[in-house]
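Fluoride-specific ion channel FluC
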Amino acid sequence: MILNGFMVAIGAVFGVLGRASLSKAIDKEKRHAFPMATFTINMIGCFLLGIIAALPINTPFLLMLATGLIGTFTTFSTFNVENVRFLREKKYSLFLRYAGGTCIFGILLIYAGMVVGKWLI
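Predicted structure tokens:
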């Protein structure tokens, strides 16, 4: 149990550093109404999680990658805060594109990642 917690913590450190760095790079000029950083990070996370899900790896390492790394790299809560903001501001088109695009492309990228992951085996 201690090993599992330690592995998640190691993955979390790299996930949060990756998210902060990539988010800062994408939002450098904040010219978008669309939350490009969160969308991009979540789509990358979906693809990587698809690959991880297809690999035959042991539990502690799986926890490090899936829960620690990808769990802290992506963010469902930020996604929802941004959607609520769009609804409150009556930006329904942005809401539909963001919520729909995230769900549809997220599922497609999980599948694509799984295909790549099985190909790697």
